[in-house]
Every structure is written in structure tokens, then in C-alpha cells.
Amino acid sequence: MPTYISLLKFTDQGVKSIKESPARMEKAKAVAKSFGCDIKSLHVTMGAYDVVGVFEAPNEETLAKFVLAVGSVGNVKSETMRAFSEEEFRKVVASLP
């Protein structure tokens, strides 16, 4: 399955209820699974973003549904990008004319 990386920032609402974050992470894992996505890892970070998530999903549409479902709760805002493994990148480069 394709891999995606999301950079997440807590909203004011998310910060106000920060103690609920561990439970929200577990709920996000269940929501991901219900959409056919897999949360490979979540990392709480310092700096411009509060959380970095690594996901697998069958396609962009499926991942978009998951990200929008999580974002619609109002605790985080996200920026998501497709990530290519080294092996996938090598295949892309090898196919260039």
C-alpha cells in the first residue's frame, strides 16, 4: 500500500484538552482501520508540528476520507503528503527516459 506522512498541529481546542490526546490517538487508530488505512507510527514532536504520522492506505481518496474524518473533530489540522520508499523511488527513476 502507498505510504503517506501527515504533519499535524494541535488546534486551540486540541491544546485545551491535551490530556485526552492519548485516547484520541487510540480512537484515530480505530478510525483508520475502519477506512482501510493503517497507522504505522505516530510521533509527538517539538517544533513547527506537534505530531508526525506515518500511514498506509490503498489510495489517496481513502486516506483523504480518514484525514478529513479526524480533522473534522477539530483537535488537529494536518498537511499530508505521499511518501515514496527508496525502492519505489528507484523504480520511478529507472523508468525515466
Q: What is the structure about, briefly put?
A:
With 97 residues, the chain is of the alpha+beta class. It is 42% helix and 30% strand.
Structure in words:
A hairpin with a 6-residue loop joins strand 2 and strand 3. The chain has helices spanning 12-16, 21-35, 60-71, 86-94; strands at residues 3-10, 38-44, 51-56, 76-83. A four-stranded antiparallel beta sheet has the order 2-3-1-4. The protein contains four helices and four strands. With 97 residues, the chain is of the alpha+beta class. It has one domain (3-94): 2-Layer Sandwich (Alpha-Beta Plaits). Helices cover 42% and strands 30% of the residues. The model has no long low-confidence stretch (mean pLDDT 97).
The CATH class is: Alpha Beta
What fraction, in percent, of the residue positions are helical?
A: 40-55%
Counted by DSSP, the helix tally is 4
CATH topology title: Alpha-Beta Plaits
**What spatial order of strands do you see in the largest sheet?**
2-3-1-4
Radius of gyration: 15 Å
Order of helices and strands: EHHEEHEH
Q: Assign the CATH superfamily.
A: ACT domain
Mean pLDDT: 97
Low-confidence stretches: none
Count of all domains? 1
Largest sheet: 4 strands, antiparallel
Which band does the percent of strand residues land in? 25-35%
Beta strands, count: 4
Shape: elongated
Distance between the termini: 26 Å
Briefly note the structural class of the backbone: alpha+beta
CATH architecture title: 2-Layer Sandwich
